[in-house]
Amino acid sequence: MAKTIIKHLPEMAKARSRADSPRTFRNDIEPSPRLKEFAKGKKYLIKTFGCQANVRDEEIMAGMLEKAGFVKSPSEEEANLVIINTCAVRENAEEKVYGEIGKFKSNATKDPNFILCLCGCMMQEEGVAVKLREIYHHVSIVFGTHNIDKLLDMLDEKIATKKSLIDVLSFSGDIVENLPSTRLDSYKAYVNITYGCDKFCTYCIVPYTRGRERSRAKEDILKECKELVEQGYQEITLLGQNVNSYGKDFKNGTSFAGILEDVAKLGVPRLRFMTSHPWDFTDEMLDVIAKYPNIMKCIHLPVQSGNDEILRLMGRRYTREDYLSLVKKIRERMPECAITTDIIVGFPNETEEQFLDTLSLCKEVGYDAAFTFIYSPRKGTPAARIEDNVSPKDKHDRFNRLVKVVEEGVSSHSQKMVGKTYMVLVDGPSKKDSDVLSGYAENGKLIHFKGPVQLKGSIVPVKVTEDRTFSMFGELQIDPILFLAEKLRMAMDEEPLLKNYLAAKKAAEEDASLGKLRDEIESAQRAMMNLAASHEDEKFASKRKEYLSLMKEYESHPLILNLTSAKEELEPMLSLVAEALR
Ligand code: 5AD
Ligand code: SF4
Predict the structure, then answer these.
(1) Into which CATH architecture does domain 177-412 fall?
(2) What would the pLDDT profile of 344-385 be if each residue is shown by its tens digit?
(3) Ligand 1, atom 7, residue with closest C-alpha
(4) Fewer CB within 10 Å of terminal CB in the chain, N or C?
(5) How remote is the CA of residue 432 from the centroid of ligand 1, in Å?
(6) Partners of 461 in the beta sheet?
(7) 421-478: CATH architecture
(8) Is the pTM here over 0.90, yes or no?
(9) DSSP class per residue in 270-333
(10) Does residue 277's CB lie within 6 angstroms of at least one atom of ligand 1?
(11) Ligand at shortest distance from the CA of 374
Protein backbone atom coordinates (compact mmCIF):
# COMPACT_ATOMS: atom_id res chain seq x y z
CA MET A 1 0.00 0.00 0.00
CA ALA A 2 1.63 3.22 -1.13
CA LYS A 3 1.77 6.22 1.17
CA THR A 4 0.53 4.31 4.25
CA ILE A 5 2.44 3.97 7.50
CA ILE A 6 1.42 0.73 9.21
CA LYS A 7 2.37 0.89 12.88
CA HIS A 8 0.40 -1.99 14.36
CA LEU A 9 -2.18 -4.41 12.98
CA PRO A 10 -4.67 -6.28 15.15
CA GLU A 11 -4.12 -9.95 15.98
CA MET A 12 -6.99 -12.04 17.36
CA ALA A 13 -4.59 -14.38 19.22
CA LYS A 14 -3.07 -11.43 21.08
CA ALA A 15 -6.50 -9.94 21.69
CA ARG A 16 -7.64 -13.22 23.22
CA SER A 17 -4.66 -13.46 25.58
CA ARG A 18 -4.93 -11.86 29.00
CA ALA A 19 -1.17 -11.89 29.58
CA ASP A 20 -0.43 -8.20 30.12
CA SER A 21 -1.88 -6.31 33.08
CA PRO A 22 -3.83 -3.12 32.49
CA ARG A 23 -2.38 0.15 33.78
CA THR A 24 -4.05 3.46 34.57
CA PHE A 25 -2.64 6.63 32.98
CA ARG A 26 -3.51 10.25 33.61
CA ASN A 27 -3.08 11.82 30.23
CA ASP A 28 -3.07 15.59 29.96
CA ILE A 29 -3.70 16.09 26.27
CA GLU A 30 -1.74 18.94 24.67
CA PRO A 31 -2.27 19.46 20.93
CA SER A 32 0.87 20.31 18.93
CA PRO A 33 1.17 23.88 17.53
CA ARG A 34 1.09 22.35 14.02
CA LEU A 35 -2.26 20.64 14.73
CA LYS A 36 -3.69 23.79 16.30
CA GLU A 37 -2.72 25.75 13.19
CA PHE A 38 -4.29 23.07 10.95
CA ALA A 39 -7.49 23.00 13.01
CA LYS A 40 -8.13 26.74 12.64
CA GLY A 41 -11.53 27.22 10.98
CA LYS A 42 -11.96 23.46 10.42
CA LYS A 43 -15.05 21.43 11.27
CA TYR A 44 -15.26 17.88 12.60
CA LEU A 45 -17.98 15.26 12.51
CA ILE A 46 -18.10 11.93 14.37
CA LYS A 47 -20.50 9.20 13.22
CA THR A 48 -20.97 6.57 15.87
CA PHE A 49 -22.44 3.08 15.48
CA GLY A 50 -23.11 0.50 18.16
CA CYS A 51 -23.37 0.64 21.90
CA GLN A 52 -23.04 3.27 24.64
CA ALA A 53 -19.33 2.49 25.04
CA ASN A 54 -18.86 3.86 21.53
CA VAL A 55 -21.03 6.89 22.34
CA ARG A 56 -18.81 7.66 25.32
CA ASP A 57 -15.70 7.25 23.09
CA GLU A 58 -17.26 9.76 20.69
CA GLU A 59 -17.60 12.28 23.51
CA ILE A 60 -13.96 11.86 24.43
CA MET A 61 -12.77 12.20 20.83
CA ALA A 62 -14.96 15.31 20.43
CA GLY A 63 -13.37 16.76 23.58
CA MET A 64 -9.88 16.20 22.22
CA LEU A 65 -10.69 17.64 18.79
CA GLU A 66 -12.25 20.74 20.34
CA LYS A 67 -9.16 21.17 22.50
CA ALA A 68 -7.11 21.27 19.29
CA GLY A 69 -9.44 23.95 17.88
CA PHE A 70 -11.79 22.02 15.58
CA VAL A 71 -15.47 22.95 15.84
CA LYS A 72 -18.45 20.64 15.40
CA SER A 73 -19.72 20.57 11.83
CA PRO A 74 -23.42 21.27 11.28
CA SER A 75 -23.51 18.96 8.24
CA GLU A 76 -21.66 16.13 6.53
CA GLU A 77 -20.90 18.29 3.49
CA GLU A 78 -19.12 20.97 5.51
CA ALA A 79 -16.96 18.57 7.54
CA ASN A 80 -13.18 18.79 7.08
CA LEU A 81 -12.47 15.94 9.48
CA VAL A 82 -14.73 12.90 9.81
CA ILE A 83 -14.39 10.00 12.23
CA ILE A 84 -16.46 6.86 11.65
CA ASN A 85 -16.69 5.06 14.98
CA THR A 86 -17.64 1.48 14.12
CA CYS A 87 -19.32 -1.52 15.77
CA ALA A 88 -18.47 -5.18 15.15
CA VAL A 89 -21.06 -7.00 17.21
CA ARG A 90 -23.10 -8.20 14.20
CA GLU A 91 -22.51 -8.25 10.47
CA ASN A 92 -25.26 -5.74 9.67
CA ALA A 93 -23.53 -3.14 11.87
CA GLU A 94 -20.44 -3.60 9.71
CA GLU A 95 -22.32 -3.37 6.44
CA LYS A 96 -23.57 0.11 7.31
CA VAL A 97 -19.98 1.30 7.65
CA TYR A 98 -19.08 0.62 4.01
CA GLY A 99 -21.81 2.97 2.82
CA GLU A 100 -20.68 5.63 5.29
CA ILE A 101 -17.08 5.52 4.11
CA GLY A 102 -18.19 5.86 0.49
CA LYS A 103 -20.32 8.88 1.33
CA PHE A 104 -17.31 11.00 2.28
CA LYS A 105 -15.50 10.51 -1.03
CA SER A 106 -16.91 13.83 -2.26
CA ASN A 107 -15.55 15.68 0.81
CA ALA A 108 -12.08 14.32 -0.05
CA THR A 109 -12.44 15.36 -3.71
CA LYS A 110 -13.47 18.91 -2.76
CA ASP A 111 -10.94 19.42 0.01
CA PRO A 112 -7.32 18.17 -0.45
CA ASN A 113 -6.76 18.46 3.32
CA PHE A 114 -9.87 16.41 4.21
CA ILE A 115 -9.18 13.73 6.82
CA LEU A 116 -11.26 10.56 7.20
CA CYS A 117 -10.58 8.39 10.27
CA LEU A 118 -11.98 4.93 10.97
CA CYS A 119 -11.97 3.63 14.51
CA GLY A 120 -13.94 1.45 16.94
CA CYS A 121 -14.53 -2.27 17.34
CA MET A 122 -14.66 -3.24 13.66
CA MET A 123 -11.09 -1.99 13.20
CA GLN A 124 -9.92 -4.41 15.91
CA GLU A 125 -10.75 -7.37 13.65
CA GLU A 126 -7.92 -8.97 11.70
CA GLY A 127 -7.65 -7.87 8.08
CA VAL A 128 -10.29 -5.11 8.21
CA ALA A 129 -8.00 -2.06 8.46
CA VAL A 130 -5.77 -2.96 5.53
CA LYS A 131 -8.72 -4.08 3.39
CA LEU A 132 -10.62 -0.84 3.93
CA ARG A 133 -7.57 1.32 3.24
CA GLU A 134 -6.96 -0.62 0.01
CA ILE A 135 -10.53 -0.20 -1.23
CA TYR A 136 -11.10 3.37 -0.06
CA HIS A 137 -8.15 5.60 -0.89
CA HIS A 138 -9.66 8.57 0.93
CA VAL A 139 -9.25 6.84 4.32
CA SER A 140 -6.51 8.75 6.18
CA ILE A 141 -6.18 7.14 9.62
CA VAL A 142 -7.31 3.80 11.03
CA PHE A 143 -7.05 3.24 14.76
CA GLY A 144 -8.71 0.98 17.31
CA THR A 145 -10.40 1.01 20.69
CA HIS A 146 -7.12 0.99 22.65
CA ASN A 147 -5.46 4.15 21.32
CA ILE A 148 -8.25 6.73 21.23
CA ASP A 149 -6.16 8.84 23.62
CA LYS A 150 -3.51 9.14 20.86
CA LEU A 151 -5.96 10.68 18.37
CA LEU A 152 -4.30 14.10 18.33
CA ASP A 153 -0.81 12.60 17.91
CA MET A 154 -2.05 10.51 14.98
CA LEU A 155 -3.63 13.56 13.34
CA ASP A 156 -0.40 15.51 13.83
CA GLU A 157 1.61 12.70 12.21
CA LYS A 158 -0.78 12.50 9.27
CA ILE A 159 -0.50 16.26 8.70
CA ALA A 160 3.31 16.20 8.98
CA THR A 161 3.95 13.16 6.78
CA LYS A 162 0.95 13.53 4.44
CA LYS A 163 0.78 9.73 4.60
CA SER A 164 -2.08 7.55 5.74
CA LEU A 165 -1.68 5.80 9.04
CA ILE A 166 -2.85 2.46 10.43
CA ASP A 167 -2.35 1.89 14.13
CA VAL A 168 -4.57 -0.78 15.72
CA LEU A 169 -3.27 -2.32 18.95
CA SER A 170 -4.27 -5.72 20.29
CA PHE A 171 -3.62 -6.09 23.99
CA SER A 172 -5.48 -6.27 27.27
CA GLY A 173 -5.93 -2.51 27.26
CA ASP A 174 -5.19 0.26 29.73
CA ILE A 175 -7.33 2.85 31.48
CA VAL A 176 -6.68 6.44 30.54
CA GLU A 177 -8.04 9.16 32.82
CA ASN A 178 -8.16 12.96 32.49
CA LEU A 179 -9.07 12.96 28.81
CA PRO A 180 -11.14 15.95 27.73
CA SER A 181 -14.73 15.23 26.81
CA THR A 182 -17.59 17.07 25.14
CA ARG A 183 -20.79 15.45 26.34
CA LEU A 184 -23.56 15.02 23.77
CA ASP A 185 -26.27 15.87 26.33
CA SER A 186 -26.35 18.45 29.10
CA TYR A 187 -28.80 16.56 31.33
CA LYS A 188 -28.00 12.85 30.99
CA ALA A 189 -24.59 11.25 30.95
CA TYR A 190 -22.82 7.94 30.60
CA VAL A 191 -20.01 7.12 33.00
CA ASN A 192 -17.73 4.16 32.31
CA ILE A 193 -17.08 1.98 35.33
CA THR A 194 -15.51 -1.02 33.60
CA TYR A 195 -13.93 -1.49 30.21
CA GLY A 196 -13.66 -4.71 28.19
CA CYS A 197 -15.09 -8.12 28.98
CA ASP A 198 -13.66 -11.41 30.22
CA LYS A 199 -16.80 -13.51 29.84
CA PHE A 200 -15.95 -14.78 26.34
CA CYS A 201 -19.50 -15.83 25.43
CA THR A 202 -18.78 -18.02 22.41
CA TYR A 203 -20.68 -15.88 19.88
CA CYS A 204 -19.34 -12.52 20.99
CA ILE A 205 -16.52 -10.43 19.52
CA VAL A 206 -16.41 -7.85 22.35
CA PRO A 207 -13.75 -9.53 24.54
CA TYR A 208 -11.44 -9.41 21.49
CA THR A 209 -12.24 -5.87 20.37
CA ARG A 210 -12.36 -4.15 23.76
CA GLY A 211 -9.86 -6.21 25.72
CA ARG A 212 -9.66 -7.36 29.27
CA GLU A 213 -12.30 -6.57 31.87
CA ARG A 214 -10.79 -3.71 33.88
CA SER A 215 -12.37 -1.45 36.48
CA ARG A 216 -11.85 2.28 36.85
CA ALA A 217 -10.67 3.45 40.26
CA LYS A 218 -13.56 4.29 42.57
CA GLU A 219 -12.18 7.81 43.18
CA ASP A 220 -12.12 8.56 39.42
CA ILE A 221 -15.73 7.38 38.98
CA LEU A 222 -16.97 9.34 41.99
CA LYS A 223 -15.10 12.49 40.90
CA GLU A 224 -16.70 12.32 37.44
CA CYS A 225 -20.20 11.67 38.88
CA LYS A 226 -19.84 14.44 41.48
CA GLU A 227 -18.94 16.93 38.78
CA LEU A 228 -21.98 15.85 36.75
CA VAL A 229 -24.27 16.30 39.76
CA GLU A 230 -22.80 19.76 40.41
CA GLN A 231 -23.40 20.67 36.77
CA GLY A 232 -27.08 19.79 37.18
CA TYR A 233 -27.15 16.49 35.29
CA GLN A 234 -30.47 14.70 35.89
CA GLU A 235 -29.43 11.18 34.97
CA ILE A 236 -26.24 9.14 35.12
CA THR A 237 -25.90 5.69 33.55
CA LEU A 238 -23.01 3.60 34.84
CA LEU A 239 -21.58 1.69 31.89
CA GLY A 240 -19.79 -1.59 31.47
CA GLN A 241 -20.12 -4.71 29.29
CA ASN A 242 -20.85 -6.42 32.58
CA VAL A 243 -21.21 -3.95 35.44
CA ASN A 244 -21.65 -6.76 38.03
CA SER A 245 -17.93 -7.54 37.68
CA TYR A 246 -16.93 -4.06 38.79
CA GLY A 247 -14.02 -4.12 41.24
CA LYS A 248 -13.33 -7.86 41.11
CA ASP A 249 -9.95 -7.12 39.50
CA PHE A 250 -8.90 -5.07 42.54
CA LYS A 251 -9.15 -8.24 44.66
CA ASN A 252 -9.94 -6.19 47.77
CA GLY A 253 -13.66 -6.75 48.16
CA THR A 254 -14.70 -3.79 45.98
CA SER A 255 -18.06 -4.59 44.39
CA PHE A 256 -20.58 -3.14 41.98
CA ALA A 257 -23.12 -2.83 44.79
CA GLY A 258 -20.61 -0.60 46.61
CA ILE A 259 -19.97 1.81 43.74
CA LEU A 260 -23.69 1.89 42.86
CA GLU A 261 -24.51 2.91 46.43
CA ASP A 262 -21.72 5.51 46.53
CA VAL A 263 -22.95 7.14 43.31
CA ALA A 264 -26.59 7.01 44.47
CA LYS A 265 -25.57 8.88 47.62
CA LEU A 266 -24.19 11.75 45.53
CA GLY A 267 -27.83 12.68 44.95
CA VAL A 268 -28.17 12.49 41.17
CA PRO A 269 -31.94 12.51 40.48
CA ARG A 270 -31.75 9.34 38.36
CA LEU A 271 -29.19 6.58 38.33
CA ARG A 272 -29.16 3.72 35.82
CA PHE A 273 -26.64 1.02 35.01
CA MET A 274 -26.02 -1.36 32.14
CA THR A 275 -25.37 -4.17 31.36
CA SER A 276 -25.86 -6.81 34.07
CA HIS A 277 -24.92 -10.41 33.45
CA PRO A 278 -27.40 -12.86 35.05
CA TRP A 279 -24.47 -15.00 36.24
CA ASP A 280 -23.03 -12.78 38.94
CA PHE A 281 -26.00 -10.67 39.97
CA THR A 282 -25.68 -10.55 43.77
CA ASP A 283 -28.24 -10.11 46.56
CA GLU A 284 -26.16 -7.15 47.71
CA MET A 285 -26.88 -5.48 44.34
CA LEU A 286 -30.61 -6.09 44.79
CA ASP A 287 -30.48 -4.56 48.29
CA VAL A 288 -28.88 -1.37 46.97
CA ILE A 289 -31.23 -1.05 43.98
CA ALA A 290 -34.25 -1.52 46.27
CA LYS A 291 -32.94 0.91 48.93
CA TYR A 292 -32.32 4.06 46.86
CA PRO A 293 -35.29 5.78 45.23
CA ASN A 294 -32.95 7.53 42.78
CA ILE A 295 -31.78 4.16 41.36
CA MET A 296 -34.23 3.46 38.56
CA LYS A 297 -36.10 0.21 38.94
CA CYS A 298 -35.21 -1.09 35.52
CA ILE A 299 -32.75 -3.94 34.99
CA HIS A 300 -31.35 -5.01 31.63
CA LEU A 301 -30.70 -8.71 32.02
CA PRO A 302 -29.70 -10.34 28.72
CA VAL A 303 -30.89 -13.96 28.62
CA GLN A 304 -29.76 -14.78 25.04
CA SER A 305 -31.59 -18.16 25.02
CA GLY A 306 -34.13 -20.11 27.07
CA ASN A 307 -32.55 -23.50 26.43
CA ASP A 308 -29.90 -24.99 28.71
CA GLU A 309 -27.90 -26.70 25.97
CA ILE A 310 -27.74 -23.52 23.87
CA LEU A 311 -26.82 -21.50 26.98
CA ARG A 312 -24.00 -24.00 27.60
CA LEU A 313 -22.78 -23.72 24.01
CA MET A 314 -22.96 -19.94 24.30
CA GLY A 315 -20.79 -20.12 27.43
CA ARG A 316 -23.30 -18.13 29.47
CA ARG A 317 -22.63 -19.91 32.84
CA TYR A 318 -26.26 -20.06 33.99
CA THR A 319 -29.23 -22.31 33.31
CA ARG A 320 -32.78 -21.40 32.39
CA GLU A 321 -33.77 -22.23 35.97
CA ASP A 322 -31.03 -19.98 37.43
CA TYR A 323 -32.25 -17.15 35.23
CA LEU A 324 -35.91 -17.60 36.09
CA SER A 325 -35.20 -17.75 39.81
CA LEU A 326 -33.22 -14.50 39.54
CA VAL A 327 -36.18 -12.86 37.78
CA LYS A 328 -38.48 -14.18 40.54
CA LYS A 329 -36.19 -12.79 43.23
CA ILE A 330 -36.09 -9.37 41.57
CA ARG A 331 -39.86 -9.27 41.24
CA GLU A 332 -40.50 -10.42 44.80
CA ARG A 333 -38.20 -7.71 46.06
CA MET A 334 -39.36 -4.95 43.66
CA PRO A 335 -42.68 -5.79 42.01
CA GLU A 336 -42.55 -2.58 39.94
CA CYS A 337 -39.07 -3.30 38.55
CA ALA A 338 -38.92 -3.44 34.75
CA ILE A 339 -36.86 -6.25 33.26
CA THR A 340 -35.49 -6.01 29.74
CA THR A 341 -33.30 -8.40 27.79
CA ASP A 342 -31.27 -9.36 24.71
CA ILE A 343 -32.10 -12.56 22.82
CA ILE A 344 -30.30 -14.31 19.99
CA VAL A 345 -32.15 -16.72 17.70
CA GLY A 346 -30.58 -19.14 15.28
CA PHE A 347 -27.43 -19.98 17.23
CA PRO A 348 -25.63 -22.70 15.21
CA ASN A 349 -27.76 -25.86 15.04
CA GLU A 350 -30.46 -24.49 17.35
CA THR A 351 -33.36 -26.93 17.01
CA GLU A 352 -37.03 -26.01 16.85
CA GLU A 353 -37.49 -27.45 20.38
CA GLN A 354 -34.60 -25.40 21.71
CA PHE A 355 -36.08 -22.30 20.11
CA LEU A 356 -39.46 -23.12 21.69
CA ASP A 357 -37.70 -23.03 25.07
CA THR A 358 -36.70 -19.43 24.33
CA LEU A 359 -40.28 -18.59 23.38
CA SER A 360 -41.66 -20.18 26.56
CA LEU A 361 -39.09 -18.35 28.70
CA CYS A 362 -40.12 -15.05 27.10
CA LYS A 363 -43.77 -15.80 27.84
CA GLU A 364 -42.95 -16.76 31.40
CA VAL A 365 -40.89 -13.64 32.13
CA GLY A 366 -43.00 -11.18 30.13
CA TYR A 367 -40.28 -8.64 29.37
CA ASP A 368 -40.83 -4.88 29.47
CA ALA A 369 -38.62 -4.66 26.38
CA ALA A 370 -36.33 -7.00 24.47
CA PHE A 371 -33.66 -6.52 21.83
CA THR A 372 -33.87 -9.48 19.50
CA PHE A 373 -31.12 -10.58 17.13
CA ILE A 374 -30.47 -13.23 14.53
CA TYR A 375 -27.16 -14.93 15.30
CA SER A 376 -24.37 -13.46 13.23
CA PRO A 377 -21.10 -15.44 13.05
CA ARG A 378 -18.12 -13.33 14.11
CA LYS A 379 -14.76 -14.43 12.70
CA GLY A 380 -12.36 -15.55 15.42
CA THR A 381 -15.05 -16.43 17.98
CA PRO A 382 -15.54 -20.11 18.96
CA ALA A 383 -19.15 -20.21 17.73
CA ALA A 384 -18.10 -19.10 14.25
CA ARG A 385 -16.19 -22.39 13.86
CA ILE A 386 -19.33 -24.50 14.41
CA GLU A 387 -20.83 -25.75 11.19
CA ASP A 388 -24.42 -24.52 11.11
CA ASN A 389 -27.31 -26.48 9.58
CA VAL A 390 -30.14 -24.03 10.34
CA SER A 391 -31.34 -22.38 7.14
CA PRO A 392 -31.54 -18.55 6.98
CA LYS A 393 -35.27 -18.97 6.27
CA ASP A 394 -35.78 -20.87 9.53
CA LYS A 395 -33.77 -18.28 11.41
CA HIS A 396 -35.91 -15.44 10.05
CA ASP A 397 -39.05 -17.37 10.76
CA ARG A 398 -37.99 -17.92 14.39
CA PHE A 399 -37.03 -14.29 14.68
CA ASN A 400 -40.49 -13.17 13.57
CA ARG A 401 -42.20 -15.57 15.97
CA LEU A 402 -40.00 -14.34 18.80
CA VAL A 403 -40.79 -10.69 18.06
CA LYS A 404 -44.52 -11.49 18.31
CA VAL A 405 -44.15 -13.17 21.70
CA VAL A 406 -41.96 -10.32 22.97
CA GLU A 407 -44.61 -7.85 21.80
CA GLU A 408 -47.32 -9.62 23.77
CA GLY A 409 -45.28 -9.33 26.97
CA VAL A 410 -44.35 -5.71 26.31
CA SER A 411 -47.96 -4.84 25.59
CA SER A 412 -49.26 -6.40 28.81
CA HIS A 413 -46.90 -4.15 30.79
CA SER A 414 -47.78 -1.09 28.72
CA GLN A 415 -51.52 -1.61 29.16
CA LYS A 416 -51.06 -1.57 32.92
CA MET A 417 -49.42 1.84 32.65
CA VAL A 418 -52.55 3.52 31.24
CA GLY A 419 -54.14 5.86 33.75
CA LYS A 420 -51.02 6.06 35.94
CA THR A 421 -48.68 9.02 36.24
CA TYR A 422 -44.93 8.61 35.63
CA MET A 423 -41.99 10.95 36.06
CA VAL A 424 -40.47 11.51 32.61
CA LEU A 425 -37.02 12.90 31.84
CA VAL A 426 -37.70 14.98 28.73
CA ASP A 427 -35.38 14.38 25.77
CA GLY A 428 -36.95 17.05 23.54
CA PRO A 429 -39.24 17.02 20.51
CA SER A 430 -40.14 13.57 19.24
CA LYS A 431 -38.43 12.34 16.06
CA LYS A 432 -41.75 11.93 14.23
CA ASP A 433 -43.67 15.02 15.38
CA SER A 434 -41.93 18.21 16.46
CA ASP A 435 -45.03 19.37 18.40
CA VAL A 436 -44.73 16.37 20.67
CA LEU A 437 -42.10 15.86 23.38
CA SER A 438 -40.55 12.49 24.22
CA GLY A 439 -38.81 11.12 27.23
CA TYR A 440 -38.28 8.05 29.34
CA ALA A 441 -40.15 7.09 32.49
CA GLU A 442 -38.34 5.57 35.48
CA ASN A 443 -39.11 2.07 34.11
CA GLY A 444 -37.45 2.84 30.77
CA LYS A 445 -40.70 3.25 28.77
CA LEU A 446 -40.76 5.91 26.10
CA ILE A 447 -43.62 8.38 26.66
CA HIS A 448 -44.79 11.05 24.20
CA PHE A 449 -46.81 14.09 25.29
CA LYS A 450 -47.57 17.67 24.27
CA GLY A 451 -45.53 20.39 25.95
CA PRO A 452 -43.10 23.25 25.29
CA VAL A 453 -39.60 22.40 24.08
CA GLN A 454 -38.12 24.34 27.04
CA LEU A 455 -38.97 21.32 29.21
CA LYS A 456 -36.06 19.42 27.60
CA GLY A 457 -33.78 18.12 30.37
CA SER A 458 -36.46 18.39 33.09
CA ILE A 459 -38.17 15.57 34.96
CA VAL A 460 -41.95 16.11 34.76
CA PRO A 461 -45.07 14.11 35.68
CA VAL A 462 -46.99 12.67 32.73
CA LYS A 463 -50.21 10.67 32.98
CA VAL A 464 -50.32 7.82 30.46
CA THR A 465 -53.48 7.99 28.38
CA GLU A 466 -52.77 5.62 25.50
CA ASP A 467 -50.72 2.46 25.02
CA ARG A 468 -48.94 2.08 21.69
CA THR A 469 -46.99 -1.06 22.80
CA PHE A 470 -43.41 0.19 22.32
CA SER A 471 -44.21 3.74 23.39
CA MET A 472 -46.95 5.47 25.33
CA PHE A 473 -48.92 8.65 24.88
CA GLY A 474 -49.69 10.87 27.84
CA GLU A 475 -50.67 14.24 29.27
CA LEU A 476 -48.41 16.60 31.14
CA GLN A 477 -49.62 16.95 34.74
CA ILE A 478 -48.16 20.40 35.50
CA ASP A 479 -48.47 23.95 34.17
CA PRO A 480 -45.23 24.17 32.17
CA ILE A 481 -44.95 27.96 32.58
CA LEU A 482 -45.14 27.83 36.36
CA PHE A 483 -42.78 24.85 36.39
CA LEU A 484 -40.18 26.64 34.27
CA ALA A 485 -40.51 29.87 36.28
CA GLU A 486 -39.91 27.93 39.50
CA LYS A 487 -36.94 26.15 37.92
CA LEU A 488 -35.50 29.51 36.89
CA ARG A 489 -36.01 30.88 40.40
CA MET A 490 -34.25 27.87 41.92
CA ALA A 491 -31.41 28.13 39.41
CA MET A 492 -31.06 31.83 40.22
CA ASP A 493 -30.90 31.01 43.94
CA GLU A 494 -28.02 28.67 43.21
CA GLU A 495 -26.29 30.97 40.74
CA PRO A 496 -22.81 31.75 42.19
CA LEU A 497 -22.65 35.23 40.59
CA LEU A 498 -26.01 36.15 42.09
CA LYS A 499 -25.01 34.72 45.45
CA ASN A 500 -21.80 36.78 45.29
CA TYR A 501 -23.77 39.96 44.48
CA LEU A 502 -26.25 39.40 47.31
CA ALA A 503 -23.41 38.81 49.78
CA ALA A 504 -21.58 41.97 48.63
CA LYS A 505 -24.82 43.97 48.93
CA LYS A 506 -25.50 42.68 52.43
CA ALA A 507 -21.94 43.47 53.56
CA ALA A 508 -22.22 47.03 52.20
CA GLU A 509 -25.63 47.57 53.83
CA GLU A 510 -24.56 46.29 57.23
CA ASP A 511 -21.20 48.06 57.50
CA ALA A 512 -21.34 50.79 60.20
CA SER A 513 -18.80 53.16 58.60
CA LEU A 514 -20.68 53.04 55.30
CA GLY A 515 -23.98 53.66 57.15
CA LYS A 516 -22.49 56.75 58.73
CA LEU A 517 -21.23 57.97 55.36
CA ARG A 518 -24.66 57.42 53.82
CA ASP A 519 -26.27 59.52 56.60
CA GLU A 520 -23.70 62.27 56.07
CA ILE A 521 -24.28 62.23 52.31
CA GLU A 522 -28.05 62.47 52.82
CA SER A 523 -27.79 65.40 55.23
CA ALA A 524 -25.34 67.19 52.88
CA GLN A 525 -27.88 66.69 50.05
CA ARG A 526 -30.68 68.14 52.18
CA ALA A 527 -28.53 71.13 53.21
CA MET A 528 -27.63 71.74 49.57
CA MET A 529 -31.33 71.81 48.59
CA ASN A 530 -32.13 74.34 51.35
CA LEU A 531 -29.15 76.55 50.44
CA ALA A 532 -30.10 76.44 46.77
CA ALA A 533 -33.66 77.51 47.65
CA SER A 534 -32.45 80.45 49.72
CA HIS A 535 -29.88 81.47 47.04
CA GLU A 536 -26.94 81.30 49.46
CA ASP A 537 -24.46 80.60 46.68
CA GLU A 538 -21.21 80.64 48.64
CA LYS A 539 -22.48 78.35 51.38
CA PHE A 540 -24.00 76.11 48.66
CA ALA A 541 -20.61 75.83 46.89
CA SER A 542 -18.84 74.85 50.10
CA LYS A 543 -21.57 72.26 50.98
CA ARG A 544 -21.32 70.83 47.48
CA LYS A 545 -17.56 70.42 47.92
CA GLU A 546 -18.19 68.59 51.18
CA TYR A 547 -20.83 66.42 49.45
CA LEU A 548 -18.51 65.49 46.56
CA SER A 549 -15.73 64.50 48.91
CA LEU A 550 -18.15 62.33 50.92
CA MET A 551 -19.32 60.70 47.69
CA LYS A 552 -15.73 60.02 46.63
CA GLU A 553 -15.00 58.46 49.99
CA TYR A 554 -18.16 56.33 49.69
CA GLU A 555 -17.47 55.14 46.15
CA SER A 556 -13.88 54.19 46.88
CA HIS A 557 -14.79 52.22 50.00
CA PRO A 558 -13.59 48.56 49.48
CA LEU A 559 -17.08 47.18 50.17
CA ILE A 560 -18.64 49.46 47.55
CA LEU A 561 -15.91 48.60 45.02
CA ASN A 562 -16.64 44.95 45.70
CA LEU A 563 -20.39 45.49 45.19
CA THR A 564 -19.81 47.36 41.91
CA SER A 565 -17.67 44.57 40.50
CA ALA A 566 -20.15 41.87 41.65
CA LYS A 567 -22.88 43.80 39.82
CA GLU A 568 -20.80 44.14 36.67
CA GLU A 569 -20.08 40.39 36.68
CA LEU A 570 -23.80 39.63 36.98
CA GLU A 571 -24.99 41.91 34.19
CA PRO A 572 -24.22 39.68 31.14
CA MET A 573 -26.15 36.83 32.78
CA LEU A 574 -29.13 39.07 33.52
CA SER A 575 -29.27 40.14 29.89
CA LEU A 576 -29.29 36.47 28.88
CA VAL A 577 -32.21 35.76 31.22
CA ALA A 578 -34.05 38.83 29.89
CA GLU A 579 -33.40 37.60 26.36
CA ALA A 580 -34.73 34.12 27.21
CA LEU A 581 -37.88 35.55 28.77
CA ARG A 582 -38.61 37.80 25.82
N1 5AD B 1 -24.85 -12.38 16.80
C2 5AD B 1 -26.03 -11.87 17.19
N3 5AD B 1 -26.19 -11.13 18.27
C4 5AD B 1 -25.09 -10.89 19.02
N5 5AD B 1 -24.94 -10.21 20.16
C6 5AD B 1 -23.65 -10.25 20.51
N7 5AD B 1 -22.96 -10.97 19.63
C8 5AD B 1 -23.84 -11.40 18.69
C9 5AD B 1 -23.72 -12.17 17.53
N10 5AD B 1 -22.57 -12.69 17.15
C11 5AD B 1 -26.05 -9.57 20.88
C12 5AD B 1 -26.21 -10.16 22.28
C13 5AD B 1 -25.71 -9.06 23.16
C14 5AD B 1 -26.07 -7.85 22.37
C15 5AD B 1 -25.36 -6.59 22.74
O16 5AD B 1 -25.78 -8.20 21.04
O17 5AD B 1 -27.58 -10.39 22.49
O18 5AD B 1 -26.28 -9.08 24.44
FE1 SF4 C 1 -20.15 -10.29 24.81
FE2 SF4 C 1 -20.82 -12.04 26.73
FE3 SF4 C 1 -19.10 -10.04 27.28
FE4 SF4 C 1 -21.69 -9.49 26.84
S5 SF4 C 1 -20.86 -10.72 28.53
S6 SF4 C 1 -19.90 -8.40 25.95
S7 SF4 C 1 -22.23 -10.99 25.28
S8 SF4 C 1 -18.76 -11.73 25.86
Answers:
(1) Alpha-Beta Horseshoe (3.80)
(2) 999 999 999 999 999 999 999 999 999 999 999 999 999 999
(3) 204
(4) C
(5) 28
(6) 423
(7) Beta Barrel (2.40)
(8) no
(9) EEEEE---GGG--HHHHHHHHH-TTB-SEEE---B-S-HHHHHHHT----HHHHHHHHHHHHHH
(10) no
(11) 1
